[in-house]
TrEMBL record:
SUPFAM superfamilies: RmlC-like cupins. Pfam families: Cupin_2. Residues 34-92 form the Cupin type-2 domain. It comes from Sulfitobacter geojensis. This is Cupin domain-containing protein. It comes from the Bacteria.
Length: 103
């Protein structure tokens, strides 16, 4: 169980840091409703995403794809990416180095 608080990341999306170290951070995103979004953005961190539950349409740069439970992928540093929740669920993201803006 994480000692970090659950915070509202955006409308219909909760975020909780699960573990952190200066070199790596694990974060859960709970998408509560279909249509909730992870706005397109980029950051210097390499990110891996694992779909624990739900269905999502992700975009990375100019590519879009649909993912569901058990799927995972890596987002390169500075790549513009975002998602739309198709069915409520949970994503588990790892960032290297850690996202200090989430602390």
């Amino acid at each position: 169980m994480s000692d970090f608080p659950v915070v509202q990341a955006s409308e219909g999306v909760l975020r909780q840091v699960l573990a952190d170290h200066p070199d790596l951070m694990v974060v859960a995103f709970q998408f509560q409703t279909a249509g909730a979004t992870g706005a397109r953005h980029n950051h210097p961190h390499v990110q891996s995403t694992f779909v624990e539950s739900g269905r999502f349409r992700f975009s990375i740069e100019d590519e879009s794809f649909e993912i569901g439970p058990g799927d995972s992928f890596v987002i390169p540093s500075e790549a513009v990416h975002g998602c739309v929740c198709l069915e409520p669920g949970r994503l588990v993201d790892c960032f290297t180095p850690r996202r200090d803006d989430f602390l």
